[in-house]
Amino acid sequence: MGSYKLKIEGGRKLEGETYVSGGKNTAVAVIPAVLLCDEPCEIDNLPDIEDVRVLIDILKELGAQVEYDAERRHIAIDPRGVTQCRVSSEQSQRMRASYYFLGALLGRFGEAQVGYPGGCNIGSRPVDQHLKAFEALGAADLSDTEYLHVKGELKPGRRVVFDKITVGGTMNAMLAAARIPGKTVLYNTAREPHIVDLANFLSSMGATVVGAGTNTIRITGCPKLHHSSYTIIPDQIETGTLMIAAAATHGIVTICGCIPTHMEALSCKLLEMGVMVDEEDDRITIRPARKRYRAVNIKTEEYPGFPTDLQQPISMLLTTCEGCSKIEETIFSNRFRQLNEVEKMGAQVLVNGQLAMINGVEKLHGATLEATDLRAGAALVIAGLMSEGTTLITNTEYIERGYEHIEEKLRILGAVISRV
Ligand code: EPZ
Known about the structure:
Blueprint: E1 6-9, E2 16-19, H1 24-33, E3 41-44, H2 50-62, E4 65-69, E5 74-78, E6 86-87, H3 89-92, H4 100-109, E7 111-115, H5 128-136, E8 140-141, E9 147-151, E10 159-161, H6 167-177, E11 183-187, H7 193-204, E12 208-210, E13 216-220, E14 229-231, H8 236-248, E15 253-256, H9 264-273, E16 275-280, E17 283-288, E18 297-299, H10 308-318, E19 324-328, H11 337-343, E20 348-352, E21 355-359, E22 368-370, H12 374-386, E23 390-394, H13 397-402, H14 406-412, E24 416-419
Helix pairs in contact: 1-2, 1-4, 1-7, 4-6, 5-6, 6-7, 8-10, 8-12, 10-12, 11-12
The structure holds ligand 1.
Ligand 1 is lined by residues 25, 28, 96-97, 120, 122, 124-130, 164, 166-169, 190, 237, 308-309, 331-332, 374-375, 402.
């Protein structure tokens, strides 16, 4: 795992059809959510990625019985053997989403102790809003320098008002509230598709969740949650990454099994640049409509705005556009590291804090690049595909965390990409 480099011979058009895997950011919340259930659950369409394997290790360590079939993208989890509410620091640091064990274990046992989460270094990533939500629900914050620790009987009838829109904080509060016998209302919530998916999963186990996808979520918990067999939604960010990769190589690619309405912010930007985006029920076809695309300005925002997770991939496409593009990153403070790397390929970039200016050049040339985080890694793969010559990407373990078999998918579309 991760001990190889990716080698890309650039300049080939991607052509053909590809399929999107299940959503990473849904999977990483739905798996811990099973701990809230009093019966076994089954989940389908799980992406075969490293983050899922880490979560399975944690579930097993907690005492759950897990049967995972990576080939069928299926998992059966029996949480009845779980009696402890502590996730070791070592395990927690293996990924960001380990923080969802806080909400799930607190909701199940009235106590959760989880080491500080790891994950991508994309700027400061506090969890104050998660803790604020747990306290509003009735828990005490007993965290120390090593462990996040919350404890207390959660009470019905509470309101949580987030000071800042947070995906993780919203999902964690939903998890904690799912077994409270009575109503909880969450205000100023995030609206990402994975929040709706988690709400649907909690509802399928017997909680009542209303308003997910808006900025107010009302949850009527159920102290005994029952078996569910649930299929998670396709990955919005993988869909977007493939759309951008197709556009970057000027090929014609159909991305199947996706949800086009989740992609509107990206589709609109691609259209503005001169990329044709044809949407059908569950597929999107990308076609180039110009030899050189037009420069555009991008500002990242919470859903339904332009997703920060696609800012890094699309920034590569902007390096060869006609004119000067501006990117404003408003969600994370350190999410332009891919731009330092792409400068080695001849891109003209100026970064000033949360702003990046990209002056389009005609072509990029191959180089040896370092993936600094998950989406930066995907961005560099796109840069390699669109450039002339050979690109080598190191630190590929970042990419494996969140993209299912990315090089196989690209190879089927005609990319010359291999592990070395
Ligand atoms: C989730 O991170 C995703 N991670 C990220 O995906 C994604 O970039 C992000 O949401 C935004 O969409 C997972 O789902 C595991 P936030 P999260 O809480 O939950 C601040 C990827 O590449 N904030 O919405 O950490 C925070 O610092 C990853 O797939 C607080 O101030 O994001 C940030 O500026 C990377 N206090 C902003 O809010 C808090 O308590 C949004 O963060 C929580 C967050």
